[in-house]
Amino acid sequence: MEFPAKLSQAPRFKLAHLPTPIEKLTRFSAKLNGPEIHIKRDDLTGLATGGNKTRKLEFLIADALKQGADTVITAGGPQSNHCRQTAAACVRAGLACHLVFGGTPSDTLNGNRFLDHLLGAKEHWTPKGTRETKMESLAEELRKAGKKPYLIPVGGSNSVGSLGYIFAMYELATQIHEQNLDFTHIVFATSSGGTQAGMVVGAKLANLKQKLVAISIDQVPDGTSDFNYKKFVFDVAQKINHDLQLGLTLNPEDFSMDYNYLGGGYGVVGDPERESIHLLAKTEGILVDPVYAGRALAGLIDKIRKKEFSKNDKILFWHTGGETALHAYVEELNNY
Fold it and tell me: What is the pLDDT of residues 131-173, one digit of tens each?
């Protein structure tokens, strides 16, 4: 499948094991007595156990190296999959890595935070709501020390990182054609927005007709906070469209998302997440994390039970990775 000229010329630093496989969830589907469900295994991208951020980091790290950076700064939650994969990507590229977390540090090193330390990343803590400010001040400190920092936003979600999911949709289109697959919907978790922006643009470019069902794991509807999420994702996609001269017609309606599964908030495990994690593990032997994929999968389960999908539908659930965070939620998950 041919890529637009400027897209094919985008600098890329190979990190991921691609294409990631698509598997049919036979026993999981039967348990739900609903539509046929398949899973796209982006938990198998291969970088420090994998995850969707690896696709973004191929372009972000390439951009950092192109700009002559020797250090990367990014931010996330203490169990951030993005931070763990960024730390690993920096090791591969020979870059120093600094991670900014919001809140108060715990003495317990587990899950992704333990892996961050294992990978040699240096962590910094700042009060909640000040991560971006801390990243900027840290960058200035490093510049004064003679370093050349490159800042990656939370989740790697900007017009550079989102390129990873434009290519992912071309990958999916090829798999659908070669494996004679047929899906009606693609269900996935959305949070920082870069994956969704890339998927919408990539679906249009690759002529994929499946309905994209984005389940918000932490963002709230526009108008209920100071952050206009849909506008942010739309703006990222429009910047890609402009910078790469793709000539697409994009509308805010292309970036719809479901806010019905926010639960107790980011990283708070409730019964829906507990059920989805246990059900997939016990029917298919596949692990999902409690923050992203587990919450989106819980949303899919609920939608099937509410008959929002017919038995004739065929669902592709996009596994965004992050099962290493399970080790930080043992108490919350063990007694289900």
Answer: 999 999 999 999 999 999 999 999 999 999 999 999 999 999 9
pLDDT in tens, 275-311: 999 999 999 999 999 999 999 999 999 999 999 999 9
Q: Which of 13, 256, 44, 326 is nearest to 152 (CA)?
A: 13
Say which residues have a Cβ less than 8 Å from residue 336's Cβ, sequence separation at least 6.
271, 274, 275, 277, 278
- Cα separation, 257 vs 42, whole angstroms: 20
- Residue of 80, 157, 192, 276 marked catalytic: 80
Specify whether 80 is catalytic.
yes
Look-up: residue for tokens 């906070």?
225
Contact in structure between 212 and 203 (CB atoms under 8 Å): yes
Q: Flag whether the pTM goes above 0.85.
A: yes
